[in-house]
Amino acid sequence: MKTRESLIAMTVVGSLILAGCAPTGSLQEVPTSTPTNLLNDTGWLLEILHGQVVMPSTQVTLNFEKDTLNGTDGCNQYNGSYAVDGEKITVAENITATMMACEEPVMKQASDYIAALRQAAVYKFTGQQMTLLDADDKTLVTFRQNLELTGKNPQNSTYLTDGQAITLVNGVAELEVAPGSASKQVTRYFGNAVDIDLNGDGVNLRVTKVRTI
To answer: What's the rounded Cα separation, in Å, for the pair 23 and 2?
Structure first.
């Protein structure tokens, strides 16, 4: 049986970035009668907004929980609701936010970001990135994955690896390779994190391992 190791990176400032190596063969998901919401219980950090890199002095986040979303737009906290159907996503217009005042460029970016969320019609995964596109298939925003650490244990969290949601319980997840098969795909949390700055941007990433067998 082949073994695959994935690196998982977590930002010290309250987020966890996942990076993984693709297995030799494609993972098979167990068919279910209810469509899986791959966004549920995941978090994301904005990288690109309308083709422009996010301002380095700001951190813009997007977290999904069942049918609600929340995060920070770089100036204020916001929350709203959403629905998914396959790769289609609908974000409700009534996104609410706190009312702190920030510098004009920051507030402009925040306004453009919230507007982009409202226009989202499709979400797509590429590696550990997620892109939101509008109804004309035009890219609106690009995120890299992170997981809020507050109140969460990395050994009891949901990770997105190769487009598949894997939920660890006490550091372990087991999935049937195929319905009724005795063979299982086992993913384990592989411990000790190390804080490093990968790209010199002053933000440390916490790197650890998850191993899938």
So the answer is: 9
The helix or strand, by DSSP H or E, that contains position 5, with its residue range, turns out to be: strand 4-11
How far apart CA 40 and CA 47 sit, in angstroms, is 20
Residues 102 and 75: their CA atoms lie apart, in Å, by 6
What CATH number should be reported for the domain holding residue 152?
Answer: 2.40.128.270
Higher-scoring residue by pLDDT: 177, 187: 187
Give 69-120 pLDDT, tens digit per residue.
999 999 999 999 999 999 999 999 999 999 999 999 999 999 999 999 999 9
141 and 132 Cβ atoms separated by less than 8 Å? yes
Range of the domain at 170: 4-212
Q: Is the pLDDT score of 169 beyond 80?
A: no
Q: How many domains does the chain have?
A: 1
Which letter does DSSP use for residue 109 in this model? H
